[in-house]
């Protein structure tokens, strides 16, 4: 049996009112990639924070290189050789690559002056090793997100880390960037590093990982070898129940035409036309940077329109602001929940009602009673797990935050609901609930645009699919005629079908 | 679905949370009470009705400025121009009174003037996309200059007419034994409290300070909110200017210099975050009172004014440190 380099045994950690970790365990083996899986709120992040000393543990032991350890903080664990690469990168765009790698421990001479040439040389060695084709003197902000992640890895390597923890590393990466990340992970594995890979994407787990540890409700559930398991049994382990069908598509009769977009052009959008019926789900597929979000924002009035028309139920609305779009029944749920979707410092209630306060007030005065009723209705309907409607939303898990974001859009009673990556960073259980909700709205006759980078999601949920490439529509399919290969081909711009409006 | 179970389970937890928040909010109040108790032991005159009313009256000007400043800071902005607006509107009011323009016209006109001057900064910030610090630094300097030009650097007396006597009521009058400035302060804080807690505008202020792009994407006219808060802040600065001018029966061209910093200090001591989106108007009132009590106590205790500044700085630092510890 292989000997773990890092062992976390029987970790317990409680916060006031919550048992975050309840006998959680994790083994990391040298030269292996360990997947750490579980629904949001299962305790993955907490476990990593306990490991790196951000939180102190209540009970349990951590063995590193066969010695019991107790890290006092991230600095301590990092110096011992455990590096963590967070979902949100901790880099400074205004500094150079080399400065970022050596931030806080710059190579200096006896007088404290930075020895730039030495630092650049050292950084260059790290970058070469990771196959990053940039000079260490380049500003970090000029790099793509995937390349920035490589800089984080370089930083981890510069600490002579034995263990590298990656938290949702591919969330913001394009397919090509993901591929090159995997190449690097494979190389690190061969060089004997122990890697912990946290991700919601099952496909990636099976592609890159050797072993899987599953947590549920803070408890250790199982450690499996990837070779011995499959997606279904893994999902079952994570949610503790069987998920019958991942995408519960419902057939429903389409109604009349609801949204029509005619020859729409804007920055990064080039002559786009499509229609959408009541009770229809239109999937929008495409690679990152294909202009999907931009198109949605133009329709929502959040980005300027150059030419073309946007009609709702036959009436030209052409919104110039989000306010106008909402007034005409177009609601948009942003892909960037934390940046543009929610106000993290405000409560569940305040976030949810924000777009609908006009309906929830008499004159200038807020009708607190009506607001509470409306919010509680949605909390129940969406099965949002929150201690109360007054909970600060930043304290909820990603899935529950997303549900609030969707509820916020729905409260405006839109005719057209635009969901931009509605399940990004959301765990399997909550995902399914969100799908069910979307289907429910569809049945009620709402028109839904579903923008998603996950092809199975688009294929599983939509009635019709548009594929975008470089600001244009490069393909349109009825779902029954579509498959991943066809969508992919269009996403890469092959087989462009010129469509007339 | 098992919705019912969840709501039932989480009822008590919700109440516990409110309790904790409530307690944290009372922290600055506890500090204020402790300060009052300690000073009462050190000086027998301190805890008398006369002196307490005196403190409230002295505090009212800074408190009214701080009330407006709270709105601005909640949107993650800052307004350095309050002192200049105070001086200019005070001078404007004084010259109107000296021309025997009736109080009922002069005062509203001066207040609206303040709102207009404040909105100027708001427009520069919202439409010109200039940082609040820079925009209000510009208007602060500009309006102080205008005040100097307008007054020719000399005080403007309100004169000795009946109109001037009526005008003096704002600074020196009493209603039910309580000074008029204190009543005005109470009205201002009640109004702002209502605005923040019971109107859409108030909710939007918190939203804007918490996350501007999310607020914009929620279909809210962010520019209007920004211009609104700076206008209100300007209006309240003018009110403070009227109180001071009325009390002294003359407008000083240098009035209100440095008051912006006292107002900001009161807001911060009251627990409002300079990052925006978090804070309460009751906190600002307590913050202003802490600073007011401290000023009064140091005077009563015969501490030299040089040392007073040092003590004030230490108290503000302590208040802010305690506040960040709790977050």
Give a verbal description of the structure:
The complex is a heterodimer of chains A (501) and B (327). Chain A is α/β, with parallel strands linked by helices and 501 residues long. Chain A contains 17 helices and 22 strands. In chain A, the strands form five sheets. Chain A has a six-stranded mixed beta sheet with strand order 6-7-8-3-9-10, with helices on both faces. In chain A, strand 17 (361-362) and strand 18 (365-366) form a beta hairpin. The relative contact order of chain A is 0.11. Mean pLDDT of chain A is 86; it is low at 496-501. Chain B has 327 residues and is mainly alpha-helical. Chain B has 13 helices and four strands. Chain B has helices at residues 3-42, 49-74, 82-98, 103-126, 132-151, 162-172, 180-198, 200-210, 212-217, 222-248, 259-269, 281-300, 305-325, and strands at 156-157, 174-175, 178-179, 250-251. A two-stranded antiparallel sheet of chain B has the order 1-4. Chain A binds chain B through residues 17, 300, 302, 321-323, 325-327, 332, 334, 339-346, 350, 354-355, 357-358, 361, 364-366, 368, 379-380, 383, 385-391, 408, 412, and chain B through 1-3, 6-7, 10-11, 13-14, 16-18, 198-201, 203-204, 206-207, 210-211, 213-221, 277-278.
């Amino acid at each position: 049996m292989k000997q773990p380099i890092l062992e976390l045994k029987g970790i317990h950690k409680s916060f006031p009112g919550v048992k975050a970790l309840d006998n959680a365990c994790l083994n990391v083996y040298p030269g292996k990639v360990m997947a750490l899986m579980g629904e949001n709120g299962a305790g993955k992040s907490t476990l990593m924070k306990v490991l790196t000393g951000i939180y102190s543990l209540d009970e349990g032991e951590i063995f590193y290189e066969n010695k019991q350890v107790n890290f006092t903080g991230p600095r301590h664990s990092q110096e011992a050789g455990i590096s963590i690469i967070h979902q949100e990168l901790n880099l400074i765009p205004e500094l150079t690559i080399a400065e970022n790698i050596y931030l806080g421990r710059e190579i200096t001479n006896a007088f404290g002056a930075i020895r730039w040439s030495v630092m650049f040389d050292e950084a260059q060695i790290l970058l070469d090793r990771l196959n990053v084709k940039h000079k260490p003197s380049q500003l970090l902000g000029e790099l793509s997100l995937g390349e920035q992640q490589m800089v984080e890895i370089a930083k981890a390597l510069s600490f002579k880390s034995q263990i590298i923890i990656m938290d949702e590393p591919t969330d913001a990466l394009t397919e090509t960037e993901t591929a090159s990340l995997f190449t690097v992970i494979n190389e690190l594995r061969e060089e004997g590093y122990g890697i912990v890979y946290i991700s919601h994407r099952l496909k990636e787990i099976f592609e890159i990982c050797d072993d899987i540890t599953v947590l549920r409700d803070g408890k250790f559930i199982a450690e499996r070898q990837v070779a011995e398991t499959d997606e279904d049994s893994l999902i079952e382990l994570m949610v503790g129940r069987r998920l019958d069908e991942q995408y519960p598509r419902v057939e429903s009769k389409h109604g009349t035409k609801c949204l029509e977009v005619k020859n729409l052009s804007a920055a990064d959008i080039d002559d786009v036309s499509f229609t959408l019926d009541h009770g229809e789900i239109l999937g929008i597929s495409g690679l990152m940077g294909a202009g999907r979000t931009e198109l949605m924002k133009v329709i929502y009035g959040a980005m300027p329109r150059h030419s073309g028309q946007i009609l709702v139920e036959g009436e030209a609305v052409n919104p110039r602001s989000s306010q106008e779009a909402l007034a005409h029944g177009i609601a948009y749920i942003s892909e960037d929940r934390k940046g543009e979707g929610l106000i993290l410092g405000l409560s569940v209630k305040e976030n949810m009602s924000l777009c609908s306060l006009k309906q929830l007030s008499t004159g200038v005065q807020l009708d607190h009673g009506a607001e509470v009723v409306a919010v509680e209705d949605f909390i129940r309907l969406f099965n949002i797990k929150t201690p109360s409607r007054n909970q600060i939303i930043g304290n909820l898990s990603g899935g529950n935050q997303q549900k609030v974001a969707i509820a916020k859009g729905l409260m405006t009673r839109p005719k057209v609901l635009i969901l931009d990556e509605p399940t990004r960073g959301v765990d399997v259980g909550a995902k399914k609930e969100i799908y069910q909700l979307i289907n429910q709205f569809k049945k009620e006759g709402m028109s839904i645009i579903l923008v998603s980078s996950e092809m199975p999601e688009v294929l599983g949920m939509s009635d019709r699919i548009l594929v975008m490439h470089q600001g244009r529509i490069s393909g349109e399919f009825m779902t029954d005629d579509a498959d991943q290969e066809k969508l992919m081909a269009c996403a890469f711009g092959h087989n462009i079908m010129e469509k007339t409006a | 679905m098992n919705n019912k179970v969840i709501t039932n389970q989480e009822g008590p937890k919700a109440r516990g949370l409110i309790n904790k928040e409530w307690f944290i909010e009372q922290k600055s109040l506890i500090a204020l009470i402790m300060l009052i108790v300690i000073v009462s032991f050190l000086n027998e005159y301190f805890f008398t009705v006369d002196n307490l009313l005196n403190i409230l009256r002295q505090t009212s000007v800074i408190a009214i400025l701080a009330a407006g400043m709270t709105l601005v800071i909640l949107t993650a902005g800052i307004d350095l121009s309050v002192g200049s607006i105070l001086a200019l509107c005070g001078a404007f009011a004084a010259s109107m009174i000296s021309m025997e323009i009736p109080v009922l016209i002069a005062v509203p006109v001066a207040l609206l003037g303040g709102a207009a001057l404040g909105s100027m900064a708001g427009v520069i910030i919202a439409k010109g996309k200039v940082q609040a610090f820079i925009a209000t630094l510009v208007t602060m300097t500009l309006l102080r200059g205008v005040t100097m030009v307008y007054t020719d650097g000399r005080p403007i007396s309100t004169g000795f007419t009946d109109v001037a006597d009526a005008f003096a009521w704002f600074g020196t009058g009493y209603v039910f034994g309580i000074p008029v400035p204190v009543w005005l302060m109470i009205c201002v804080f009640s109004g702002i409290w209502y605005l923040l807690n019971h109107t859409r505008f108030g909710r939007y202020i918190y939203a804007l300070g918490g996350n501007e792009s999310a607020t914009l994407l929620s279909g809210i006219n962010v520019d209007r909110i920004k211009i609104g808060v700076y206008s209100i802040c300007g209006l309240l600065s003018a009110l403070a200017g009227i109180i001071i001018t009325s009390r002294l029966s003359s407008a000083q061209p240098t009035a209100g210099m440095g008051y912006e910093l006292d107002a900001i200090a009161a807001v911060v001591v009251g627990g409002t975050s300079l990052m925006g989106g978090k804070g309460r108007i009751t906190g600002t009132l307590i913050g202003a009172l802490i600073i007011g009590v401290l000023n009064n106590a140091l005077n009563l205790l015969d501490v030299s004014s040089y040392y007073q500044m040092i003590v004030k700085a230490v108290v503000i630092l302590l208040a802010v440190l305690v506040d960040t510890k709790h977050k």
